[in-house]
Amino acid sequence: METIFDVRNVSYTYVGKINALNGVSFKVMPGEQISIMGSNGSGKSTLLTLLDGLIYPTSGEFYAFDSQISEDVFDAIKDNEFRSYFRKRVGFVFQNSDVQLFSSTVFEEIAFGPLQLNMTPEEVKTRVIEVLEMIGITKLKDRSPHTLSGGEKKKVCIAAVLANNPDVLLLDEPTAGLDPRTQLWLVELLQELGKAGKTIITATHDLETVEQISKRAIVMGEDHRIIVDGDVEKVLNNRELLLSTNLIHEHMHFHGKLVHEHLHVHYREHIHEH
């Protein structure tokens, strides 16, 4: 069976010697739904950016679809065919929708990807109409993406990625800033895409959605290493792990002589323990 991603002892350092990944290793197989969890600054976004081939390891090796990905490979003219192959198979939804949107209309935004795949104008039109209907944003097709609400922008970004029909979806904090209704829509969409066999990797510290969209959790520590890679339910039930990785935090409150402990969880109502 083909391996989607194989990350081997990868470290990444930004300019200025800021360490973002530290000896990270894991594999991703077809059809897996994975959440990369960790507090802000743990390296989740950097890891997704690397998986999308936008940056390369400072040390270690990264393979995608059983081929090594490096600056030499992606920048070499002779491997332009593989670059196109990679871009067709992997789609990335950025955390900040405004970074991803650049076209004059929603229709043009969604059409951009298929046009790069050398589809005919009629094929592109058909594909865009299908995706607009699937995401439920047909009424927005003539609007400028930059005039839309945050939730609408997120839907357009997802539609633009799905228009290429990628095998792999990478999503960086996809629920951030979304209202509850749009969050529910996104969760249900990811569940359906998972059932359809898509490989889905989400970077998040939203514990409420993790258990709904993934079966495997990779937890990043504040030292930019993988602390745990395992079953998502076991991870979410490991209080000490969640505390140590700053995914939940606790406060001690005094009510008279009674000590009252609160466990606070990101994006969900806090848990009370007496």
UniProtKB/TrEMBL annotation:
Keywords: ATP-binding, Cell membrane, Membrane, Nucleotide-binding, Translocase, Transport
Family statement drawn from the similarity comment of this UniProt entry: Belongs to the ABC transporter superfamily.
Domain of life: Archaea
Function in brief: Probably part of an ABC transporter complex. Responsible for energy coupling to the transport system.
Record-level GO cellular component terms: plasma membrane
Protein name per Swiss-Prot or TrEMBL: ATPase component NikO of energizing module of nickel ECF transporter
Organism this protein belongs to: Methanosarcina barkeri str. Wiesmoor
Alphabetical GO biological process terms: transmembrane transport
Gene Ontology MF annotations: ATP binding; ATP hydrolysis activity
Compartment(s): Cell membrane
UniProt-listed CDD domains: ABC_cobalt_CbiO_domain1
Residue ranges annotated for the ABC transporter domain, each copy included: 5-248
Gene3D superfamilies: P-loop containing nucleotide triphosphate hydrolases
Pfam family, one: ABC_tran
Family annotation (SMART domains): AAA
